[in-house]
Amino acid sequence: MNYQLLTQKMPSRIKKAWFISDIVEAIISLIVVGTVGNIFPIPYKEWVMPIVLIAIVAFFVGSLVLIPYRYHFHRYQIDGDAISFQRGVFFRKTVYVPLNRVQHIEIEQGPILKIFDLEELIIHTAATKHSISGLNPSTASELREEVTKRAKVADLNV
């Protein structure tokens, strides 16, 4: 079965941002588990703690190894009446958001995205929010303008 890929890929700098983010998450997880293990009495601590620490390290090493694969399927596309998002590694998901359901749009930039000069576009609907993380700042602004313009037209056509 062929999985139809959307047209727009993220800048390749997002792979470095994901790498740094995964490393930071691993360090924080190890610190939290180590602190909890030293503060609270844990039954069979000599067995449980090494297993938990090995599981955390294995999870994050796997996450780092899968970054190129994740990048391949992390895409978006804007059509006449909807914006689509694609993501996932093992379980891939494509979400279609009708433009007449868009309530407002935000652009955010956390510290890791700022290092790599990337931004996140967040599209809010009545039910939830959808995000495209890792856009160039100019692309994020253009996409925000395009979605806003098309959402107004779609709203008028309803």
Q: What report would you give on this structure?
A:
There is one protein chain. The chain folds into two domains: 10-69; 75-157, Roll (PH-domain like), CATH 2.30.29.30. It has five helices and seven strands, in the order βαααββββαββα. Helix content is 51%, strand content 25%. The two termini are 36 Å apart. Helix 1 packs antiparallel against helix 2 (45-65). A four-stranded antiparallel sheet has the order 1-2-3-4. The longest helix is centred in the N-terminal third of the chain and has 27 residues, at 13-39. It is α+β, with helices and mostly antiparallel strands and 158 residues long.
By oligomeric state, this entry counts as single chain
Low-confidence stretches: none
CATH superfamily of the largest domain: Pleckstrin-homology domain (PH domain)/Phosphotyrosine-binding domain (PTB)
How many individual domains? 2
Protein name: YdbS-like PH domain-containing protein
Keywords: Membrane, Transmembrane, Transmembrane helix
Domain YdbS-like PH: 71-146
Transmembrane segments: 20-41, 47-67
